[in-house]
Design a protein that fits this description.
With 228 residues, the protein is α/β, with parallel strands linked by helices. Helices cover 32% and strands 26% of the residues. The protein has a six-stranded mixed sheet, sandwiched between helices. The longest helix has 16 residues, at 170-185. 39% of the residues are buried. The structure holds adenosine-5'-diphosphate (2 copies). One adenosine-5'-diphosphate (ADP) is lined by residues 11, 13, 15, 17, 35, 37-43.
Length: 228
């Protein structure tokens, strides 16, 4: 599902963010990406959805070779994966329903299919009763669950989450993890960058630790391994 071979990323200003990474992530895995600030976690994740291009090496995601993919095919790549950010990135002028439907309207799905798909993902994130609310009318945890619903509405094989609990209090964060685990149990691969030590050490999964742009640890049921 994700294959990186001898991947390097140097930013135009000369910062060497990723320095020779080899990694393989299979369908159905749940992987935490951990490491100190500035270690290269975000860059590692951005390479997976072609927000950044590798300077050297190959990155293959969902059978797309991201170092070689044409600009015109990037929207097709993006539809094969879902992305969730720390700051939710919901559109404030649209309702919960509309925020999720938006992703389907751009690919011109029929209205009835859209409705079925949106209500289905709202059920997965336990928010069917909030469909008509606007983002400012719901809590932070609920906003993040809407963002997750939007990310999975196209049925992506891979869900990428960059610090999804970074803006949430502990109780709310556990709720988000429950939803992510349910999505993973349905077969979706999840890659999640996080600083949340309690979550990583309690809900044990594969842990990839990035330090200085390299993989310092890669353990099947790893621990967070840093003080926060
Ligand atoms: P992390 O997510 O682990 O905090 P990042 O991938 O954001 O690490 O950053 C790795 C290194 O690359 C840091 O030194 C950071 O300052 C640098 N960096 C990140 N993004 C850019 C960019 N767009 N241009 C230049 N340097 C960057
Ligand atoms: P969560 O644990 O999901 O973050 P909260 O404890 O923050 O939930 O919120 C509890 C309830 O209060 C939620 O059902 C939410 O709909 C409602 N709520 C929270 N913030 C707001 C707000 N700014 N406006 C309206 N309702 C809100």
């Amino acid at each position: 599902m994700i294959e990186m071979k001898d991947v390097w990323k140097t930013y135009p200003n000369g910062v060497m963010a990723i320095n020779g990474i080899d990694v393989s992530i299979s369908k159905g895995e749940f992987v935490y990406v951990v490491g100190p600030s500035g270690a290269g976690k975000s860059t590692f994740i951005k390479l997976m959805y072609r927000e950044e291009k590798p300077t050297k090496g190959t990155v293959v995601v969902n059978n797309f070779n991201l170092g070689k993919i044409k600009e015109s095919r990037i929207p097709i790549l993006r539809r094969s994966l879902g992305i969730v950010f720390q700051d939710f990135k919901l559109l404030p002028q649209l309702t919960v329903y509309e925020n999720i439907a938006f992703a389907l309207e751009v690919i011109e799905e029929p209205r009835s299919t859209i409705k079925r798909s949106v209500m289905n993902v709202l059920e997965i994130v336990h928010l069917k009763n909030k469909a008509r609310f606007y983002p400012h009318e719901i809590s932070g945890g609920e906003q993040q669950r809407v963002a997750i619903a939007r990310a999975i509405v196209n049925n992506p094989a891979l869900l990428i989450a960059d610090e999804p609990t970074g803006n949430l209090d502990p109780d709310t964060s556990w709720g988000i993890m429950k939803v992510l685990e349910e999505i993973n149990n349905r077969g979706t691969t999840i890659v999640m960058a996080t600083h949340n030590k309690e979550i990583v050490n309690t809900i044990r999964k594969r842990v990839i630790a990035i330090e200085g742009g390299r993989i310092a640890r890669d353990e099947a049921r790893g621990l967070y391994g840093y003080e926060r």
